[in-house]
Amino acid sequence: MRDARRWCLGLVLLLSTACGDAEEPFQWNLPLGFPEPAVPADNPMSTAKVELGRHLFYDTRLSANGTQACGSCHLQERAFSDGRTTALGSTGESHRRNSMSLANVAYAASLTWANPVLPDLEAQALVPIFGEHPIELGLAGQEEMLLQRLSEDARYPKLFAAAFPKEKQPISLSSIVRAIAAFERTLISGSSPYDRYTYGNELDAMSLSAKRGMTLFFSERLECFHCHQGFAFSDSVKSKETVFPEITFHNTNLYNVDGHGGYPATDTGLLEFTGKSEDTGRYRSPTLRNIAVTAPYMHDGSIATLSEVLDHYAAGGRAGAQGTGPSPYQSEFVRGFTLTPQEKEDVLAFLESLTDPTFLTDPSLSDPFNAAP
């Protein structure tokens, strides 16, 4: 939390000194039903900037010891999550939270699991690079070393110059975070069987089971769609047309350690920022796109499978199933429900239909350092 606030202020200072913009305009190739993402005026999109950002995203020189990159915790084949229960930093430090998928992060109105103060991807990029609580890439206080590393690589002077042609010193911290953010805005997933059925009018793109599951998912009986809605399957979304983004967080009664809604002291969710008891255990609803490949689940990775996730919600929260009852802070939409075995299979089939194989294998989003010569 301290790092997030400090680096947000730092980004303001960084960007206030940067006035050079890439000149080649960026052409969005958006899926049907997707609005144009919101893009900060001081960081317009360009093809050159995205390509630079892709290199930086996958470059292990962005960690102090050269062992990790952004892409180490955000693997393309896992929809840019990492498959771990909780993330592991470059120094071997285990983190307290699960790595969120970056699919459609361009549309996220808030970033990370429970942070209302990170305004955009540019600010967020500073946290893993320079944050110390926890240590992720571990470059705090080593900014000059980072810039020297990049300057000494034959590729980067050209990539930075193309991305920031008006900058007197293109290789800078400001340019690094702006390029990474630009690349992350291209991580758009919208070619799943669900999309082909819903927007492409391919009537056989989804199985009959998945179609039945879709009906259940969007029913008041299950309530799923209240927190996982719209093209992004999330209720905290912004786009170019958004005037006032709605930033929401929810308590799903995953924990109730004291019978009064308490969460483990190591992670109390939004409460850490607001100090309000009603924010105990409240976290952002992640997108459900590609959810079948992003296990384990929840903010702490404590639920292993999608089947168990359904059990959690069917019980009105795992804590309720364990005998502690409802939490005074839990969402009104987490009330519990009953599914037959066939209905459960159908809902799981629907969630599987949100997997986008093209997104998981798109070469334009892949590691350029692993590309064939």
How would you describe this structure in keywords?
373 residues, Cytochrome Bc1 Complex, Chain D, domain 2, mainly alpha, 2 domains
Question: How many separate domains make up the residues?
Answer: 2
* Average pLDDT metric: 94
- Helix and strand pattern: HHHHHHHHHHHHHHH
Counting helices, strands and paired strands, the structural category is: mainly alpha
Q: Output the radius of gyration.
A: 21 Å
- CATH top-level class of the largest domain: Mainly Alpha
- For the record, give the distance between the C-alpha atoms at the N and C termini, rounded to a whole number: 42 Å
| Main sheet summary | none
Task: Identify the overall geometry.
Answer: globular
Beta fraction of the residues?
Answer: under 5%
| Tally of DSSP helical segments | 15
Q: Please tell me the CATH architecture of the largest domain by its name.
A: Orthogonal Bundle
Query: What is the CATH topology of the largest domain?
Result: Cytochrome Bc1 Complex, Chain D, domain 2
Question: Count of DSSP E strands?
Answer: 0
Low-confidence stretches: none
Helix amount: 25-40%
